[in-house]
Amino acid sequence: MSEPTIRIYGPPMAPFVEKVVRALALKKLAYELVEPEGPEDYRRWNPETGLLPVADVDGRRVADSARILDALDERFPEPPLTSSDPRAAASQRTLESWVGETFFFYWVSYLRDRVGTEDAIASSAAPRQGPLARLGILRRVMDRGPASVSGPSSAERLGEEFARRIEDVAGFLGGRPYFYSERISRADLAVYSFLRTLFRNDIPGGPELIASQPTLVTLMQRVEQETGGAR
Among 35, 55, 103, 196, which has the highest number of CB atoms less than 10 A from its own CB? Predict the structure, then answer.
């Protein structure tokens, strides 16, 4: 029987790409990572939204990191990426979605605040609208008016709110080794991938934020042990 052909298209440092790569490492599957060389590759590889990653799994093209993980579990079920308990599995998928949308929102918000260039982020920001955005929860921060002279700057407000989201994630983990389970799942891969961007200081102060939550530091170490170490 021939080896499966798996090709991932996307920038390796992007959290959604890292989530997929970590899932492949967990399942011990060989793959080829194809990095974009310019903006045109995003639209060429994913004509529908222009977002990466996309994957070819035995000739089947799959877009969106969550759908890619679904395809991997369907084609290569061991080890599974969700708990065998349906309620725990539902919680893991919900957390994966929440983390992806929430962390992406704060990253885009930080760029908008610091860079002030809509064009620089519009192509990546526009298509992502999940349940929090539809409920208006994420928009509350963006719709706030400018801070008063004596009040906090928008960057400071973003930093404070982002710190609270990190606390939320630590609270979801609680005293368990992994989210909603005793074994690693797609929720842990999603959380790790975004925390990893903070560890690289993509948002200034990120390493200090993570260090303030020892349970998340330990989670990252566990995920790395299961998926081939830090990269």
Answer: 55
Residues 109 and 210 in one domain: yes
Reported in sequence order, the residue ranges of 15-98 that DSSP labels E, i.e. its strands, are 32-34, 54-57, 60-63
Assign residue 93 the CATH number of its domain. 1.20.1050.10
Residue 120 shares a structural domain with residue 217: yes
Residue 1, domain member (yes or no): no
Identify whether residues 150 and 170 lie together within a single domain: yes
Asked if residue 202 and residue 98 are part of one domain, the reply reads: yes
Nearest to 20 by CA among 195, 224, 190, 222: 190
At residue 187, the pLDDT reads: 98
Domain hosting residue 130, numbered range: 86-226
Cα–Cα distances in angstroms (integers) from residue 192 to residues 4, 99, 205, 230, in the given order: 26, 10, 17, 11
**pLDDT the model gives residue 4:** 66
DSSP letters along 13-27, please?
TSHHHHHHHHHHHHT
pLDDT averaged over 10-residue windows placed end to end, the chain, 231 residues: 80 93 97 94 92 93 96 97 97 96 77 52 38 35 42 58 89 96 97 89 78 95 93 73
Chain position carrying tokens 């970590």: 22
Q: At what angle do helices 186-199 and 214-226 cross, to 10 degrees?
A: 110
